[in-house]
């Protein structure tokens, strides 16, 4: 039987990692890290257990995260459930692209993605990934289903990149008018 722990380390690697995480972060940081993961909505108790905090502490921080827009809350089956706010995630990605890439790099990416979408349209004789998905027979190859997924991802990335171009342009124009 293998033991991944080291002599005198006080436990297994997972326990040590959890303790290190707890020691090196605040309760708010841990709650935020848990809620920002893509997952099904979670109750405050579930978030508390994952974030290594008490349930009242999790509720307090979740309420704050909802107020600032990082998280969203819904009532499901008589309980409040929390999840990351997808609009905030999308906005961060758009802002990140606009900040980290030049306008020319973004434009080149748009051209590449449009070319790739054209290849999908030509290869599969379909106008959209949804059109392709609905035309596939029940026994279609996994390759065809992967194409649907890749096409959808390419379209999403195209729109995000176009939004980053527009965001950067609006930011630049706003700075120029001040």
From TrEMBL:
Keyword Coiled coil found: no
This protein's UniProt keywords: Plasmid
Cited InterPro entries: DUF7342 (IPR055766), WH-like_DNA-bd_sf (IPR036388), WH_DNA-bd_sf (IPR036390)
Region span, Disordered: 1-25
Official protein name in the record: ArsR family transcriptional regulator
Organism: Halobaculum magnesiiphilum
């Amino acid at each position: 039987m293998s033991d991944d722990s080291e002599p005198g380390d006080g436990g297994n690697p997972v326990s040590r990692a959890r303790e290190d995480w707890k020691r090196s972060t605040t309760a708010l940081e841990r709650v935020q890290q848990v809620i920002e993961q893509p997952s099904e909505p979670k109750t405050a108790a579930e978030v508390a257990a994952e974030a290594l905090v008490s349930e009242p502490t999790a509720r307090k921080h979740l309420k704050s995260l909802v107020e600032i827009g990082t998280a969203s809350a819904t009532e499901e089956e008589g309980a409040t459930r929390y999840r990351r706010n997808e609009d905030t995630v999308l906005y961060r990605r758009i802002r990140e692209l606009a900040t980290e890439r030049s306008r020319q790099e973004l434009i080149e990416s748009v051209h590449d993605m449009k070319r790739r979408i054209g290849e999908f349209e030509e290869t599969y004789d379909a106008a959209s990934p949804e059109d392709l998905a609905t035309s596939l027979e029940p026994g279609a190859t996994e390759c065809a289903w992967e194409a649907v997924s890749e096409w959808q991802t390419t379209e999403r990335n195209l729109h995000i990149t176009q939004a980053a171009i527009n965001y950067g342009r609006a930011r630049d124009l706003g700075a120029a008018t001040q």
